[in-house]
Amino acid sequence: MNYHTLIMSRVAIGVFVLAAACGSVACSGGASAAATGGVDAAVEASPGPSYTAQPGSDLPIPSVADGFQIVTPDYDPNNVNASKMVVDPGGEIFLCYYVTLPNDAEFDVGSFQSWMSPGSSHHFIVYQQAAGNGTNGAGLPVIAQPSGTIQDCPTATGNWLYATSTPGEVITSTMPDGVGLPFPAGQAIVLNMHFINAGTTTVYPKVKFNILRAKNVQYKAAALVSFNRSINVPAASASGPGTQTVNGTCTVPAGSKVFSMSTHTHKHATAAVVNFVRGGTTTEIVHTGSATAYPPMQRTGTGTDWEHPGVSLWPGPEFLTTQDGDAFTYSCAYVNTASTPVTVGETAASNEMCMMVGYFYPAASVSCQDTASTN
């Protein structure tokens, strides 16, 4: 059994595009209340959160007042970094794009927008990195790179922030009004990008990510993120595939306002579920994987498989407000048909993850305990 406490008050989900003057990112140019204190009426009555997916051929750069955008460079065979932004017919590549954000002071995030070009984009994942080399909250190594670096990598390191696998659409995730997710000044970010070209002509993929400013911030948000280190799915044998289910429990302080929840796994997962437990009653709140019915708070069309995880939202004024003794439990089930075990890690092709990813305010610490059982 592995017990760990995650301090997530600065974990967010996003990244930026800076114009030439800002390097690799295109530029546009309060303390949280106690968990037991009252919640401001303006925040309670405000709209949000929201999650939308709309067809789109591009993602505009936000205004200076509204935020920033990060964009991958156009293909250039003479540039050591931009020369990697190409996928040959039948090709598959994994790239990491390292960016240092341009904000010179803490920036409160109100919403994120992402867009991937169709034709080859499979998914991208955003990780937050501390300055220099070290380890992330899960104990995995973090290796810093100069801003603007693009290199081959099947995985990336850092604290998981955001993921999307929907090309050709503008995905927008917005927090409640009056709530902001803080980025420290000069935050280092890495985009782990996966591209597949099933066609017969060369393609040049593009990824864009907007991070938009929160307005009238009265409360700082935090991430409720679990990371289960107990994954070790046995190899397949003559009797059939190897299987395993891992579980965990996380708690946040009483009075926390949870407004979104999702899951993150890789391709071996057949199901990922998050439950809310209160007074001995367990309620499923997120379901990723095949199901006859999904939780009522889960967004329609989400949760079909690991690449399209379930996304659940709770509106104000109540959101999902925790009480003493409440807990969030999660579980992930895996099937392994390969001849080698599948262990915990960040490589989607050969490793697995089991993560519960949510957001709440006021920002506070999150405690998680994980377990595993082999079927």
Report what the structure shows.
With 375 residues, the chain is an all-beta fold. It contains one helix and 29 strands. The strands form six sheets. Strands 2, 3, 4, 6, 12, 13, 15 and 16 form an eight-stranded mixed β-sheet that branches. The longest helix is centred in the N-terminal third of the chain and has 4 residues, at 41-44. It has one helix at residues 41-44, and strands at residues 2-6, 25-26, 50-55, 67-71, 92-100, 107-116, 121-129, 134-135, 141-142, 150-152, 159-164, 169-174, 179-183, 188-196, 207-213, 219-220, 222-225, 232-233, 242-251, 257-264, 269-278, 281-289, 311-313, 320-321, 327-336, 342-344, 351-352, 355-361, 366-374.
Number of strands: 29
Order of helices and strands: EEHEEEEEEEEEEEEEEEEEEEEEEEEEEE
Discrete helix count: 1
* Helix-residue proportion: under 10%
Radius of gyration: 20 Å
Low-confidence stretches: 1-24, 26-45
Silhouette? globular
Secondary structural class: mainly beta
Q: How far apart, in Å, are the first and last alpha carbons?
A: 17 Å
The fraction of residues in strands falls at 35-45%
Major sheet: size, sense and barrel closure?
8 strands, mixed
| Whole-number total of structural domains | 2
Write down the overall mean pLDDT. Answer: 83
Can you summarize this structure?
The protein has one helix at about 40-45, and strands at about 1-5, 25, 50-55, 65-70, 90-100, 105-115, 120-130, 135, 140, 150, 160-165, 170-175, 180-185, 190-195, 205-215, 220, 220-225, 230-235, 240-250, 255-265, 270-280, 280-290, 310-315, 320, 325-335, 340-345, 350, 355-360, 365-375.
